[in-house]
UniProtKB/TrEMBL annotation:
TM annotation in the entry: none
An annotated GO BP: actin filament bundle assembly
Name of a matching Pfam family: CH
Protein name: Calponin-homology (CH) domain-containing protein
Domain Calponin-homology (CH) positions: 1-72, 94-200, 215-323
Family annotation (InterPro entries): CH_dom, CH_dom_sf, Fimbrin/Plastin
SMART domains: CH
Cellular component annotations (GO), alphabetically ordered: actin filament; actin filament bundle; cytoplasm
Molecular function via GO: actin filament binding
Keyword set includes Flavoprotein: no
């Protein structure tokens, strides 16, 4: 009925809180006052007092995420790392939707995506993603910020999205802004896949800056990960990115611990002997990686199934984070004598859609 929100906002933003919020006996009125206080923290009003009173899980989750983003109460002066919590997700949504949603939410944009195909329809989320991946490409003076009531303003945003995509040589045959506003899932997926593929390639390209421009091979990334775990005093190793033993998730949790010792809560880790335990570990891997700031391109299923290319990008993402944080130079990477180009093609994931957009 909003009481918990009232206490939370009073703790986070006492300057905007009033005793009347808790004094009122009407749950709907209390919820409305909570939303008014949240707006003072620049939280967007996308849910109603009724949603709070009735306890809509998805909308309340997104609301809490917004409050956390705008006023989380954490000290900006402290860099102390806390344990990552277990990520929760809606297993009933499609695999591709969860994949894109996780990836977008790992980019650090200001909007939290809760329902992919609904949340992208006004064009704003896609503009934020484009600006994150291609800084300077978005003309924000011509963009319309949510909440957007007029349909033509949504079309304006989506037209700019499509135009930027065409400037980037994305495959967008017979695609217009109206298609995004209308929620055409096939075209939305095709566009997002091309964005995510670029992000993967950019990650691998960025690794080159730590090797004086030399190509970093898949063997280099493999050796780095094994050495990192070994130096931390653990014995688990992986033979390749298709090593079936990786399905239990233990190696990556040990790698993440080696990279950031304070982030993995081993009380949440299982031995990964059953399918349920494997899924739990795989889900926690993504929670931890996202918490420390890694780009996320995969789902728990990709870990369990040992999807070779997605396992590669996960390892590369952890490696890139580590090199950024610790300032490791090229001397810390054993470059293979035979250089094989590291690339990601259109078959990165078995679940990945084709980048071709057809009418």
């Amino acid at each position: 009925d909003g009481e918990a929100y009232a206490y939370l906002l009073n703790a986070l933003a006492p300057e905007h809180s009033t005793p009347s919020t808790l004094d009122t006996s009407d749950p709907t009125e209390r919820a409305n006052m909570v939303l008014q206080q949240a707006e003072k923290l620049e939280c967007k009003r996308f849910l109603t007092p009724k949603d709070i009173v009735e306890g809509s899980p998805n909308l309340n989750l997104a609301f809490v995420a917004q409050i956390f983003h705008n006023r989380n109460g954490l000290s900006t002066e402290s860099k102390n790392m806390s344990y990552a919590e277990m990520m929760t997700d809606d297993v009933e949504t499609s695999r591709e939707e969860r994949c894109f949603r996780l990836w977008i939410n790992s980019l650090g944009i200001s909007t939290y995506v809760n329902n992919l195909f609904e949340d992208v329809r006004n064009g704003w989320v896609m503009l934020e993603v484009l600006d994150k991946l291609f800084p300077g490409t978005v003309n924000w003076k011509q963009a319309n910020k949510p909440p957007i009531k007029m349909p033509f303003k949504k079309v304006e945003n989506c037209n700019q999205v499509i135009n930027i995509g065409k400037d980037l040589n994305f495959s967008l045959v017979n695609v217009a802004g109206n298609d995004v506003v209308a929620g055409n899932k096939k075209l939305i997926v095709a566009f997002l896949w091309q964005l995510m593929r670029f992000s993967m390639l950019q990650l691998l390209k960025n690794l080159r800056s730590y090797s004086h421009g030399k190509e970093i091979t898949d063997a280099d990334i493999l050796n780095w990960a094994n050495n990192k775990v070994k130096k931390s005093g653990r014995t688990t190793q992986m033979e390749s990115f298709k090593d079936k033993s990786l399905s239990n998730g233990v190696f990556f949790l040990e790698l993440l611990t080696a990279v950031e010792p304070r982030v993995v809560d081993w009380n949440l880790v299982t031995k990964g002997e059953t399918d349920e335990d494997k899924k739990s570990n795989a889900t926690y891997i993504i929670s931890v990686a996202r918490k420390i700031g890694c780009s996320i391109f995969l789902l728990p299923e990709d870990v369990i199934e040992v999807n070779q290319k997605m396992i590669l990008t996960l390892t590369a993402s952890i490696m890139y984070f580590c090199l950024q944080q610790q300032g490791e130079g090229p001397d810390d990477i054993d470059l293979a004598s035979e250089v094989s180009r590291l690339s990601v093609d259109g078959s990165v994931s078995d679940a990945a859609p084709s980048p071709q957009a057809e009418d």
